[in-house]
Amino acid sequence: xxxxxxxxxxxxxxxxxxxxxxxxxxxxxxxxxxxxxxxxxxxxxxxxxxxxxxxxxxxxxxxxxxxxxxxxxxxxxxxxxxxxxxxxxxxxxxxxxxxxxxxxxxxxxxxxxxxxxxxxxxxxxxxxxxxxxxxxxxxxxxxxxxxxxxxxxxxxxxxxxxxxxxxxxxxxxxxxxxxxxxxxxxxxxxxxxxxxxxxxxxxxxxxxxxxxxxxxxxxxxxxxxxxxxxxxxxxxxxxxxxxxxxxxxxxxxxxxxxxxxxxxxxxxxxxxxxxxxxxxxxxxxxxxxxxxx
Length: 293
Ligand SMILES: Cc1cc2nc3c(=O)[nH]c(=O)nc-3n(C[C@H](O)[C@H](O)[C@H](O)COP(=O)(O)OP(=O)(O)OC[C@H]3O[C@@H](n4cnc5c(N)ncnc54)[C@H](O)[C@@H]3O)c2cc1C
Prior knowledge:
The chain has eleven helices and 14 strands. By secondary structure, the chain is an alpha+beta fold. It has three domains: about 5-55, Uridine Diphospho-n-acetylenolpyruvylglucosamine Reductase, domain 2, CATH 3.30.43; about 60-175, Uridine Diphospho-n-acetylenolpyruvylglucosamine Reductase, domain 3, CATH 3.30.465; about 180-290, CO dehydrogenase flavoprotein, C-terminal domain (Enolase-like, domain 1), CATH 3.30.390.
């Protein structure tokens, strides 16, 4: 099938993007890498009247790392973030997760912002944004606003971005605790396919070997990536031996309401999510303790 006809604007500035979106009555849509939008248009599941191309806008590309935050412009290619040494040194969990996003070819075109706005339940980038409490910065003709990750993902493929808003930048907090480690695991039918279930954890261990800080999030098995605060509470303040982790992870089945589909049953997703979460927590603990990098 071919896409329905559309008008095309190759924008040169963010202001031009915002005014084109504003004039479109909700019928104009941004195109970034096109890796999600073009297939949807080809299947006529999306029929924008006007495509606003942001690929020429330099302001929407780049990575800046400060002491406590990594700022990634929305139009930065996934491949550029994956190959960034600064991101690998300061936000290694994002580098790890990006290695699972699609294929080299899709990462060469796909952008960080496009993935967040597409909000696929299995998106690794959305999962890490939720895990780390990232902040999305959006601009429209009405002004600029910041949206915390826990208010950004509404449901599968739906975000709280309003008509006319362009996602400009994503700010990922950097943890400064010395003994910090991460874990990321997913399972998919074939390598690089969308995840059936995924889990990620970041842990800081204190001087007394107890868990000082922990974030845990799961994806794929839920409409949007989900932080598991109850499990975090069960881990915090403890020495993370395997029995503590197993007890905390045993809370997960009651926190999830996965859906069955042609790829996997709800029960499979629930069970696998627990296994992946336990692995992610153990990896995060071991890395924080310097057992592997
Ligand atoms: C074969 C294949 C395998 C894939 N595998 C995976 C996978 O394993 N994991 C995964 O997470 N993804 C996967 N993807 C999706 C891929 O990561 C896409 O790159 C990503 O989802 C969309 O990014 P994009 O830049 O291509 O956005 P586009 O397709 O251009 O846009 C996607 C949506 O975001 C909107 N948008 C884009 N940028 C902005 C912005 N700055 N402000 C506001 N709205 C914006 C568009 O209007 C559109 O609605 C796969 C894609 C393909 C084709």
